[in-house]
Amino acid sequence: MNPRAQPVIFNPDFFVEKLRHEEPDVFTELVLSNITRLIDLPGVEFAQLLGEVESKGSASSTGFLRSLNFLKRKEKGVIFGGPLTEEGIAQIYQLIEYLGKNLHVEGLFRVPGNSLRQQALREMLNNGADIDLETGDYHPNDVATVLKVFLGELPEPLLTQRHFHAHLKIVELTLLDAEGNRTSVPDKERQIQALQLLLMLLPPANRSLLKLLLDLLYHTAKQQDKNKMSASNLALMFTPHVIWPKKVHANELKENISKLNDSITFLIKHSQKLFRAPAYIRELARMHFIGSKAKDEVDLVGLCGSPGAPSKRPLVESSSEGPEQHTQEALRELYNHVNNMPESAKKKKLMRQFNKQESGSTPVSPRSATGKKHSRTRTISGMIKRKVLGEKSPGSAESPGVLSQGTQEEGSPVSFTRTCLSPAEQIAVSKLQY
Prior knowledge:
- By secondary structure, the protein is mainly alpha-helical.
- The protein has helices spanning 14-22, 24-38, 43-50, 63-66, 86-100, 115-126, 140-152, 164-171, 188-200, 204-222, 224-227, 231-242, 250-269, 279-301, 323-339, 345-356, 380-387, 423-432; strands at residues 174-176, 182-186, 314-317, 403-405, 414-418.
């Protein structure tokens, strides 16, 4: 097939992910501000969501509810019982992929299977082995149970300890009547938006595995006519393994267990919508980068006309002063202006551009007379040479309208006045920095 005929995959969350990786603090602030707009989180619960405080709970652990006794081991394995890693996800994906081909099995995730086969499977996964599950050595029920046990033995639940109370608040979101009073009808639109935002705050490994798991459970529920496992039945199987805190008061767990089951049921039913950012978050992230770039262009091209910029003064050309000296004077003037600017990201960016053009030396130091000029450059010094001094680039005509010749008397040197660039030239210059 012609490579050019291949479809281009567009990621609608591109700017959201770009913001997450390049400016994580801005990303977190944006997401948190919109979460608190949708759900009410008191001070302690909000601090818990930020990870500033640990959730209150008793010293007793609910670990006996999170895994089966015959699969428990005192020592932590490479995969089981250790922190969630990309390596662990790669191993567990073998189970998820196999189960995706056996969704028709009745009682999947409910019937435990054989403990000896499960122990053997666990050992192979812990050793990092590639397992051929298609040989028939393992029943789908064995694989399903091992998957649940892996989730149950994670150091903290897949949905994380800090998000526990936020999930409870999302379940409680209901529609309002005409008078503004809460009804008993769930507000699904707000719940989906709140979950989209909350899941964006998960650690990358947790988010990746959660998406794989919910996709599997979603398609399992779609075949409930064969496997007899609805979304609510699956939630009963997985709620203890993905959302129950390791340490929690028994009374608190008893009071909220119904809400937690409802929360996981909702996650399963709407999983195909939860792993993309809300439309307004996409737009805000896009405008953050588009707006910043446009602002940088305006600031950079506006240097020659901005308050405090280098003043317009005649550049006198004589037989004893060559164009190289005028270049250094112009560079020195612009460098001093940038150096006197207030500390900001823009100033740092400009200073880096200055430093690049001399391979680590500052642009205020004169270039060696024996140094060779580059035939073509995109540095600030190159722009000044072409725009301020009217220097010709190889294969191009002299830049017009940059130097205006003053009056000349016989026997006197020719004087030139540096002028600001036209808007079109300013835009062209600004693009050179990129």
